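The step that takes the researchers longest sounds almost clerical: writing a folded protein down as plain text. The outcome of that step, for a single protein, is printed below.
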Amino acid sequence: MICSNCGGEYAETDLFCPFCKKENEIMAEKIKQAKYQQLVQEEREIKALPQKRMAKSRKMILIIASVMVVILVIAIVGSLISGKVQAKKEYEKQSEYMTVLEDYYQAGDLEAMSNYIDENDIFQSKYDKYYKLARSYDYYISLTECIADFTKMTEDEFFPTWEEAQKEELCISNIYFATNYGIKACKWCREGIEKYGEIDNVEQMQKINDQCIELLMNQFCYTEEEIEEMCALEDVTEKNLTPYCEQAYATWRETVE
């Protein structure tokens, strides 16, 4: 094959001249004709398909579409039913929570109430009456434990032999934790009384509040004014409570010496 452009010689089956890259027009035409014949043959085969087969295909498509619609409807109905069942279960569970908590509340079994709330992870606002009382009780118990530790430490036979700096550090630390628990208990009680005072029995909250105040005053020599000042603090933090704790320690040392 002689290239009409550069005169180079190459095989007739090559698509391009290897020297100047000009297209082999004869080979290109053969390829074009071959593709055309292929398209014509495919068109004939399509037209020759039996009409019955085409109808069967349409019927199959219709069946598949119908099945998909049925599945979709079943899924939607199932979802609605499942949602209602779940909502009913949730309502029954919440009703059970309310019944059990109210029973504990009326019986004054605050320890059982607190444990029940923790076990079932109950924290929604609708249970605030019980949650606030339970948390107040928890803080009250922590306060009594701190006081017990403080008493045990200061009554130890070796306590008088401790260095003054060690005594002060350990005592103030213990007083801080006790004060922190006591003030938080009072604040939780007062929030509960403020919210439910006009619509429910809040005697238990008032009782815990009064017991915490009495313990703080008797054990650490706080005055009522100091306790009220601490209850009025926006944040019950170590920084805010430490000045009161240091003063309480100094007053306590005066009473025991």
The mean pLDDT is 85. The chain is about 75% helix and 0% strand.
